[in-house]
Write a structure and sequence with these properties.
This is Switch-associated protein 70. The protein is of the alpha+beta class. It contains 14 helices and 9 strands. A 7-stranded antiparallel β-sheet has the order 4-3-2-1-7-6-5, covered by helices on one side. Strands 8-9 form a two-stranded antiparallel sheet. Strand 1 and strand 2 form a beta hairpin.
Length: about 600
């Protein structure tokens, strides 16, 4: 019932969305309420649901929670209509009622190559193949599936390259087509060039019968009566749990049903009583003998009926519904894989961006460190130059002081020589005046004076020598301090060089990690391409699978005499002759 409810909701959605539109695109609140009441009444009628006027009027009261909004109407639709649906209603009539409400306001005004009836059938097929989300759209994969079935029903060749170009143009603008865009696409004849309107209409009707009416196979065959035992031509229609037979293919005069279940079986019979291509359908209460037109038709009907019985035994849905479910599951799986790959790509891209940011940060840090090292080296060189200049200046000063001291020493030496010369002269005078007492006393006094002067000179010389030794010691200390500062600056430079080498090693490590991230990115990209190739191969397999399970149906008997394999093998005159023969046999039997 959940699947039935979803199918009903799609058709009702089209009718509901058309209520609030008129030619001007606006509608009053009272008009919208009246239209919703009409829609609810019509739904109850076509779905064979009993009316509840009290609940209808109570729900359609004039407030914000009423039917003016979708939130107000959908609870009423689920509670009072859809939950009471039992399945005993005409699906075609239900869809036609919803189509009548929405087609006039949405159908394109441009001329189409298909009739309104064909447009209605395409609209119903759209509801069957569309995604279970609103607003309803049909994805490119389902469009390809539908166009392939229509092309196959028309007996034409499928133009894959043409559809691929159309699919690329479609994917660049949107996810899929609406029902009205799908009708315009099929009605434009873009994928049915060279086909007349009747051929396209027959193909749409054939696909509609298979997908919507669950017609697995249909065609004319002879059936043996249970009472008279005579053979009568009937139009047989095979569905998932029943075989109905009619007087003709217009389905107006139904003659009976063959109810199928898991206990039924079908088997071929040998030719007898002048009848060929016989097979027997065994059920619990009855058995039915049927004669096909040829061996190929006989084998096709036996295989189709046996496949239907096997599906009933397994409790499986019809092939086209099962295939649709598999296509949806495959799309969901591919979408999940694509989202996972995109997530991984985003993670790798984020990681790569983070690595790039880290590398940029490290690069900036290295540049800053190099700038600081250059600045410090510059300061160190400047300090060294200043120290050298200061040391040179001190040396010059020391040299000048030493030169002055040497000049003073030379002067003192000259004075000493003069003093010695004077002493010698005094000694000579002492010798000369030794004879005179007065001169001797004076000479002794002069000698004492000279001795005192000599002692003072010696003391001054000693003081100057001590001062010179002090200046020499200070000069050595200054030289030692300069060497220590130079050694300390050299140690700092070596430490910074080692830090720069460590930073360069970290930069190389980060570069290797970035390369590994790029390699992982390339691997994920290859996986994405592999997934895309797998997706294409799966699409080809699904298309091949659909081509294998599709049951081939005979074409309708009409003046054009077109079958699923192309033109018929007999002429119109021969057909008329056979019809006269059949009518004569029929009159004789009756």
């Amino acid at each position: 019932m959940v699947g039935l409810k979803e199918e009903l909701l799609k058709s009702i959605w089209h009718a509901f969305t058309a209520l609030d539109l008129d030619r001007s695109g606006k509608v009053s609140k009272s008009q919208l309420k009246a239209r919703m009441k009409v829609l609810s009444h019509n739904l109850c009628t076509v779905l064979n649901v009993p009316h509840d006027p009290v609940a209808l009027e109570e729900h359609f009261r004039d407030d914000d929670e009423g039917p003016v909004s979708n939130q107000g109407y959908m609870p009423y639709l689920n509670k009072f209509i859809l939950e009471k649906v039992q399945g005993n209603f005409d699906k075609v009539e239900f869809n036609r009622m919803c189509w009548t409400l929405c087609a006039k306001k949405n159908l394109s005004k441009s001329p189409l190559l298909i009739s309104d009836e064909d447009a209605f059938k395409v609209w119903v097929i759209f509801n069957f193949l569309s995604e279970d989300k609103y607003p309803l759209i049909i994805v490119p994969e389902e469009i390809e599936y539908l166009l392939k079935k229509l092309t196959e029903a028309m007996g034409a060749g499928w133009q894959q390259e043409q559809f691929d170009h159309y699919k690329i143009a479609l994917n660049t603008s949107r996810e899929g087509l609406s029902a009205w865009e799908l009708i315009d696409l099929i009605g434009s004849g873009q994928f049915s060039k060279g086909m007349d309107r009747q051929t396209v209409s027959m193909a749409i009707n054939e696909v509609f019968n298979e997908l919507i009416l669950d017609v697995l196979k249909q065609g004319y065959m002879l059936k043996k009566g249970h009472k008279r035992k005579n053979w009568t031509e009937r139009w047989f229609v095979l569905k998932p749990n029943i075989i109905s037979y009619y007087v003709s293919e217009d389905l107006k005069d139904k003659k009976g049903d063959i109810i199928l279940d898991g206990n039924c079986c079908v088997e071929a019979l040998p030719d007898k009583d002048g009848k060929k291509c016989l097979f027997l359908i065994k059920c619990l209460d009855k058995s039915f003998e049927i004669s096909a037109s040829d061996k190929k038709k006989k084998q096709e009907w036996i295989q189709a009926i046996q496949t239907t019985v096997n599906l009933l035994r397994a409790g499986s849905p019809p092939p086209h519904k099962e295939a649709r479910q598999k296509r949806k599951e495959l799309r969901q799986k591919l979408l999940a894989e694509q989202e996972e790959l995109e997530r991984q790509m985003k993670e790798l891209q984020t990681a790569n961006e983070n690595k790039q940011k880290e590398l940029e940060t490290v690069r900036k840090q290295l540049e800053a460190a190099a700038a600081r090292a250059a600045e410090e080296e510059k300061k160190r060189l400047q300090t060294q130059v200043e120290l050298q200049d200061r040391f040179s200046l001190e040396l010059e000063r020391e040299k000048m002081v030493r030169q002055k001291m040497e000049e003073q020493v030379a002067q003192k030496s000259s004075e000493l020589e003069q003093y010695l010369q004077r002493v010698r002269e005094l000694e000579e005078m002492y010798k000369q005046l030794q004879e005179a007492l007065e001169d001797e006393k004076q000479a002794r006094q002069d000698e004492e004076t000279v001795r005192k002067l000599q002692a003072r000179l010696l003391e001054e010389e000693s003081a100057k020598r001590a001062e010179l030794e002090k200046w020499h010691l200070q000069q050595q200390q200054t030289i030692q301090m300069t060497e220590a500062e130079k050694q300390e600056l050299e140690n700092q430079r070596m430490i910074k060089d080692r830090a720069l080498q460590v930073a360069m090693q970290q930069l190389e490590q980060l570069e290797l990690e970035r390369k590994e991230a790029l390699e992982q990115y390339e691997e994920v990209k290859k996986k994405l391409e592999t997934a895309a190739n797998k997706t294409k191969s799966w699409k080809d397999k699904v298309a091949h699978h659909e081509g294998l399970i599709r049951l081939i149906e005979p074409g309708s008997k009409n003046p054009h005499l077109i079958t699923n394999w192309g033109p018929a093998a007999f002429t119109e005159a021969e057909l008329k002759q056979r019809q006269k023969s059949w009518k004569g046999k029929k009159a004789t039997s009756e």
